[in-house]
Amino acid sequence: MKNLMVFRLGFLVLTYLFLVNAELNTVWAQGVKKNKLRISADYVKIMDGDNYVNIKASARIEKKNVRVANIELSISNIVGEEVMELGKATTDMDGVTKYVIHSLETIRPDSTGVFTILISFEGNDLYKKTSKDISFKDALIHANIVTKDSVNYMNARLLDADTGTPIQNESLIVQVERLFKPFIIGEDFNYTDENGSIHVPIEDNIPGVDGNLTFEVVLNDNDDYGTVKTIVEAPIGVPVVYESTFDKRTMWSPRSKTPLFLLIFPNLITFGMWGFIVYFIFNLFKIARS
User: What is the pLDDT of residues 215-226, one digit of tens each?
Assistant: First the structure.
């Protein structure tokens, strides 16, 4: 009988401690406010190159928008009710990451030819669980340069990759790669015609190393197709000489390429000063001995 009373008392004590601990955990969880993570994403396709999804993670903390670093995101392909995980990506110190899709043949579209990518975050101690999905169709840009009446033109054609039909009334940007910012050619908005084509004259006297120019034809941030870009190289620029001083001894060269006069004269001055000091100390010893 005594053992039974001890067992019941122990059971009641353990039950009480369990309930108190659960209540404390609930209060602590309610006291810690998690931030809402914001995910933005856009799809980019480089013709004859990689396809990728640009992803940015941010949050609003203390009324300020901050980029969120070291967040692991799961990337999945959605087809109807089926979710197929593709891989993971982790944001860098700027809250940015890029998930590369080497070929669209590795993912599946739905019956209308639309691809859907889901970016999801499982949540942690600081941020709530969230997700973001993007949808896009596959498009093609075929471009080449033709010369007519001594004038160079950029011809480009925009097609739906699934149906092969021309995409009309969409703006394509034609630009030349430059070191800091691309140089736009033609109008700001070059709309495709009923054949999905544009014809943009190329200005003369565009400088390029050895006369080579790299053109880009871009469908920029389209609601249906994302960003699609094709690259065309042509030797139609004005040749410029690439004068590099990287291997020369100049004031702005690396330490191993310091100009000789900066090596010789300062060292001569330094050795001369030390020689004078040594000569002065030597004379002091002679005076002290005499």
Answer: 999 999 999 999
